[in-house]
Hints:
Number of domains of chain B: 1
Number of strands of chain B: 0
CATH class of chain A: Alpha Beta
Structural class of chain B: mainly alpha
Largest interface: A-B, 19 and 26 residues
Number of helices of chain B: 16
Radius of gyration of chain B: 22 Å
Number of helices of chain A: 3
Largest sheet of chain B: none
Strand content of chain B: under 5%
CATH topology of chain A: Glutaredoxin
CATH architecture of chain A: 3-Layer(aba) Sandwich
Low-confidence stretches of chain A: none
Strand order of the largest sheet of chain A: 2-1-3-4
Shape of chain B: flat
Number of strands of chain A: 4
Strand content of chain A: 15-25%
Order of helices and strands of chain B: HHHHHHHHHHHHHHHH
CATH superfamily of chain A: Glutaredoxin
Order of helices and strands of chain A: EHEHEEH
Structural class of chain A: alpha+beta
Shape of chain A: globular
Oligomer: heterodimer
Low-confidence stretches of chain B: none
Amino acid sequence: MKIKVLGPGCMNCKTLAHRALEAVQQLNIDATVEKVEDYQAIASYGILRTPGLVIDEKVVSYGSVPKVDEIKALILKQSAKA
Amino acid sequence: MKLSQFQRACLFIAAWVILYLALEPAAGLLVSALPLPASSSTTEVIRFFAYEAPKVLLLLMIVVFGVGIVRSYFSPEKTRQILGKRSLLVGNFLAGMLGIVTPFCSCSAVPLFIGFVETGIPLGVTFSFLIAAPMINEVAVVLLFGMFGWKTALIYVATGLTIAILAGYVIGRLGVERYVEEWVYTIRATVLPQESKPSFDDRIRAGFTAVRDIVSKVWVYILAGIGVGALIHGYVPENFMAGIMGKSAWWAVPVSVLIGVPLYSNAAGIIPIVHALLEKGASLGTALAFMMSVIGLSLPETIILRKVLKLPLIFIFVGVVATGIIIVGYLFNLIY
């Protein structure tokens, strides 16, 4: 599973990346967390607000910093679909 | 027992009202309990701080709570939809108004800019939004209302909005599309699914989140600003500022803007200081211009926008807005 955090490096983006990593560790799944800081790449996902959370190339949240539990739920939901 | 969001909101408002009513007597008691001479500069400084700081912080909490709820009805995505089909001047007007209520953080300025331009919103309309959004914010309005009264707060909002609308219109008429980085036009973004509509509980929760986020971020600036303001209030001689920022100094308005643009502070830090300067003889127009240039035009945001705008457009953007602010400054010096 590939998780991406979209954001140019502001406070919220860092927090989100941190929480995403924690969610992955807690779930103990095989997933990578990558930070995407390039504006061109961020914009191509269609979000107007950062930070964005992308799981397997699908935008699952943007403009807010979900809690670790919420990220875990999003990951489980995405992997159930796959 | 777990409270519903509505009950939490009621409790919050009730506690707020009680605190607000208790504020003045409590501050008075505190100051009179201190072993200070009845009338000295130091007593003045402490009295000023003891009254103003808690008052402004409390006002900020209740307004941010309300604004947080109101903002849950708006989003950049909806704003983009509304602005998509508007003609230039109407579009600028709507963009300015929506800039005030749409949730916006300057770290999202670039994705927002790309998202707006990509769906065909005219450049000028996009700029109206980008000018109004940071300039007219709840922190600035609360501080102006709390320290200057509702008239000055209203003047600030009205003139800020006017600048956003007209500056965006002027930039739109200049035909500067070629100064936007080419790649912006080539991005084909995926279309996101519509977000689910928030429930009433979600909206109240958004209000509380806004209070937590904003108050935790700006309280330091407010205390520092009021602290410096209190020192100026107590120690700087009357009319000290009249020669520098008064009406008689014709150059005061442009110089204030020149100093204000690169100066980076948020509304919370700068307004209490401006308040004190005004008291010492600075004129309203000059103070207003200084305030607007500090809050509305900031170096960090300009640097962020450089990612999508070529240098000439950056200069046009800053130049047009700064000119608008200078005109407002002179206008108010003339009226008052």
